[in-house]
Amino acid sequence: MAITAAMVKELRESTGAGMMECKKALTETNGDMDAAVEYLRKNGIMKAEKKASRIAAEGLTRIAVKDDKTAAVVEVNSETDFVAQNEKFQAFVEAVATQAVNSDAADLDSFMAEKWNLDESKTVNEALVEITAVISEKISIRRFEKVVASNGIVVPYVHGGGRISVIVEATTDVVNDEIKDAVKNVAMQVAALNPKFVSSDEISEEYRNHEKEILLAQAMKENEELPENKRKPQEIIEKMLIGRLNKEFKEICLNDQVYVKAEDGKQSVGQYLAQVGKANGANLSIKRFVRFETGEGIEKKNENFAEEVAKQAAGLN
């Protein structure tokens, strides 16, 4: 039986399932609408689609490494942090990371449409729908990034059981255990201190001007709160801003940050890398880093489960 767009639309409206899932269900059941609904229910697709509007801000990050030159990091979200302890969920996240390190997808839509590495009869998106039904929570593949070193190595670091994952790409003409350990130490620093840039050369004029504007507004407000005889002229305040800006940029630029393991508490990350490189006869530097933290930037829903249960018991829901 030919499956028409009208049939797909009717099934989609009655079940809330995705268009492709509805078409597949109708094809499998030869256009029988009731049987198609049962098909969706049996495959857990309706159950998964009903969770689509929920907020998934917990979960895990993971890294898959193919060799010293190729790595990929992914973030897979769930609704609650309990799911992160679920072995099936963890296995799924590992599989997504493996998919990413072998993928040539340029964006998430293309990635989701790829054949699933564990079963090529389904797509990544279909595998996601299945695990959502199994876990009974909304599961979301939020993002991925693949790093391929052109002239050096990539080194991964996973912190907090997957709460934060970092890949650092280093440029080096010598590769040995000491070089790798040094880059891993820097990856740990990225995880802990969350820099925005590798060096100050990467800071755009737009960003500099934006930060200067904010600091100037803060300084002007502080100045206005002083007694009139102690207030400074604006030109003096603007000169003082130079010091504040330099301090801020040192905190957000990896090379300028104080290396957390420095014995003297003064050595910068850039100086540490130069020291290790010199000791190994290498030109060692950081080209870029990627840092994923679970749920960053997602507005989390605050739920009071005790209150919810109380309301249900009182018949208010």
TrEMBL record:
Keywords: Cytoplasm, Elongation factor, Protein biosynthesis
Region (Involved in Mg(2+) ion dislocation from EF-Tu) location: 80-83
PANTHER family: ELONGATION FACTOR TS, ELONGATION FACTOR TS, MITOCHONDRIAL
Gene field: tsf
Domain Translation elongation factor EFTs/EF1B dimerisation per the UniProt entry, residue ranges: 71-296
Function: Associates with the EF-Tu.GDP complex and induces the exchange of GDP to GTP. It remains bound to the aminoacyl-tRNA.EF-Tu.GTP complex up to the GTP hydrolysis stage on the ribosome.
Entry's family note: Belongs to the EF-Ts family.
Protein name as annotated: Elongation factor Ts
Localization: Cytoplasm
Keyword Metal-binding recorded: no
Molecular function, one GO term: translation elongation factor activity
Tagged with keyword Protein biosynthesis: yes
GO-annotated cellular components: cytoplasm
Organism for this UniProt entry: Butyrivibrio proteoclasticus (strain ATCC 51982 / DSM 14932 / B316) (Clostridium proteoclasticum)
